[in-house]
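Researcher: Batch entry, complex prediction.
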Amino acid sequence: MSTRALAAWSASGLVIALSTSNPIYRAVVLLCALNLLLARGRRGSGPRLLLAGIGIAALVATLVTLLLSHTGAHVLLRLPGAIPAIGGPLTLEALVFGLSTGLGIAAAMLAVAPLTLVSQPDELVDALPPALARTGAAIGAALNLIPGTVRSAAEIRDAQRMRGWRARRVVDWPAVAVPVVLTAIEGSLTLAEAMESRAYGAAVRTHFGVEAWTGFDTLVSATALLAAAAFLGLTLSGAAPGWFPFPGLTAPAVSVPAVLCCALLVLPSLRMRP
Amino acid sequence: MSAARLGRLLAIPLLGAVLGLGGGAVHLATAAAPCAASTYTGHVTLVVEHGGGRVIGLCIGFDGSSIGGEEVLQASGLEYATGGYGSLGEAVCQIDDEPAAYSSCLPSSGPYWAVFVARAGGAWEDAASGISTLTFASGDAEGFRYDPQDGPDPPPASPAGICAAALATPTSDATGAGSGSGSGGGAGSEPATGSATEPASTPVAPSSAMSQAGATGPPSGAIAAGDDPQRAGAGTTPLATTGSELSPPLLVLAAVIGVLAGLLVVQLVLRRRRT
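Model: Structure tokens for the complex:
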């Protein structure tokens, strides 16, 4: 599957997940994204770490909403009012709204996750329009420096410890920070020279292999973009209303066309990775 | 992969869809509508409590399994105006010319129209959204109270008995919007007695710049929801509807969720085999 088609799919999923407050549609987008990750995810790109991160983000969103929003008719628990910010009634409505918010965050993150878990980084840079190719390559290279700097900091700290260094006060830290900064600058210069020696910026970027664009890619892109456009239209026209549990908890409304728009995102999952 | 294994794997999403549909059917077949007489298949009680204490009680007839919150107000013949609040739907700014003028439907201070719902003869509850997103089944009630935002915050007068009395009294209203009337307006009896007179108010064009939905409605409580072509294709259904019929949107949702969950199981099995 082409990375450009995948990008169109991710953009559509993101638009749907972020344009509605209705947890029904968010849940359908989330299920479609999970299906895609499992069907077309790269070997060795297990989504466990990502899923754990998404779970933590959703949990934090739920807790923050529950603790800070004291609105709602059904009180579950009352914290002493003397506690700043979180003191007061904790309501069922706030809990459910927090869960819905967490669901939205999870759906949005899973919608863009295939860009890294299904595509290779070089495929992602290749998929950028020519005008953004240089910027994309520079940003990609710069982002790669972050884990390198973290590794470098750990190595320098261990080396200093072997020499008897101990971090007792703040003034001790420059013994590690200065070498880390110098190593990072050196690494950046080496990277720049390597890129220049490979003619980066001298001409239009060449490709080792051109990614094929198949009829299935056209189908996936067109379906995803049309589904997102139709969903936006339904949302803006009021035919696919959002959901708000305050002041009293009610069930979200369901619109068949909107559900079908979300469900169309399952299309790329129906074709297994070769 | 053998055909038998493939068949077993494909059976999972199909089973999910069937289970989803079954769950939706069980959920939907629980409630029954109490009002089943007269020309219309369903009846919803409308209670409007003005700031001065005057109460208007009406019985609105409709065909089909449900009627929208705004359609109930439109069918009543009462003058009303609404203002949009995004995904929350339409808020009621004015009913029966109260307030005479306004700059905001929901002012931060000062009176406003609070919306209530009562499901299947139950107690009044605060509506969670605007009237354009509310849906009522037969036996439900929609209530409006002009809340002064100071002092006590009681619900409107009880809707009990309004539809029963209106349906028991012969009326010349051929289109089924039976009516009670207000106590303070001098045009009938208390809502609980449900006399069959027309509402005391006459629609007039409100002076606000906001949407004047009431101005386009009929001059009396004389339309049914099924007769409004603009509303026929709205097609949204609350997840916890109390209608007595199976709701197609919920069945579609249950089927979609079931298929997606089943596919997820298939993908998990295939991924484990690949690795």
